[in-house]
Amino acid sequence: xxxxxxxxxxxxxxxxxxxxxxxxxxxxxxxxxxxxxxxxxxxxxxxxxxxxxxxxxxxxxxxxxxxxxxxxxxxxxxxxxxxxxxxxxxxxxxxxxxxxxxxxxxxxxxxxxxxxxxxxxxxxxxxxxxxxxxxxxxxxxxxxxxxxxxxxxxxxxxxxxxxxxxxxxxxxxxxxxxxxx
Length: 181
Prior knowledge:
By secondary structure, this protein is mainly α. 78% of the residues lie in helices and 0% in strands. α5 packs across α7. Residues 62-107 form a coiled coil.
């Protein structure tokens, strides 16, 4: 059985090898017909071989790259100078703002000292008043200011004023002092 399948295979292979090709390449056709083919002949591509002309074009290409790099470097140098100028401007602005802030801080400190001095004077005035007079004035002030003045007074003075002020204010002042403990 093996021989029966082997013989047709060998015969088919031999036939394909000996049979003429179905199509011929264009270059063979042009040669066999004497060059009068309707198809153009295929030629191999031509690559430069490194002659003198190629060396000139490489040098020109390198020179062009050098010029491009020089132009880019010049543009970068200009941008770098612009950035340095902007950085200097920003530094100057920061120094101006810091100086202004320092001036405002000094002004605020001076104002706090004046207000503190005025507050201390006002507190002395309230301490020097008779309790009934001080309570009349405290009742005329906004609640938070009155309670703040009352908190700044010593215990003895606050103890004399507490029974005379409005009950709501006395209770609020007591709660604030208990919460601050």
